[in-house]
# Entry
Amino acid sequence: MKRAVTPGTFDPITFGHLDVITRAAQLMDEVIVAVAASAGKKPIFTLEERTVLARQAVEHLPNVRVEPFEGLLVDFARSREAQVLVKGLRAITDFEYEFQMAALNYQLANELETVFIMSPPQYMYLSSSIVRELASFGSPVDMFVPPHVAKALRDKFPD
Ligand code: PNS
# Structure
């Protein structure tokens, strides 16, 4: 049984995240989408809101579940007896940060394997921060996020 954790802040979840999660779900027996508290990033959605939005976005994937977590990712992954961390990689700009995180997580828990899934070209530029910025200016974001997330963004940034 291969259980993977796909961590992130998911503020909010986008089609880019969903692409990685969907492909991870095809490779692994079970995938846990781990929504980090990430208090230092001052997310616009609460941890609970981000968890609910992610949960609704993956409800069609039977081997995927969503859980919030606080603290270290490796502690969460160990507590769920996961063997793999799956991260998405977009452009080369992601590499430095992800390389650092993978090395650090290896130091902390070398039984956990970090696996990277490359974003397809149409999502290379997509990020939650771009989606938040567009939504804050009233721009439609329907091509980047599922309908329920677009609605949550409209509610967060009323005209
Ligand atoms: O979507 P993000 O914000 O790029 O995801 C980053 C995340 C949540 C994966 C990363 O910040 C993380 O693993 N946070 C949990 C705390 C932790 O384990 N930090 C690494 C050691 S300092």
User: Anything to note?
Assistant: The mean pLDDT is 96. The domain at 3-146 is CATH 3.40.50.620 (Rossmann fold).
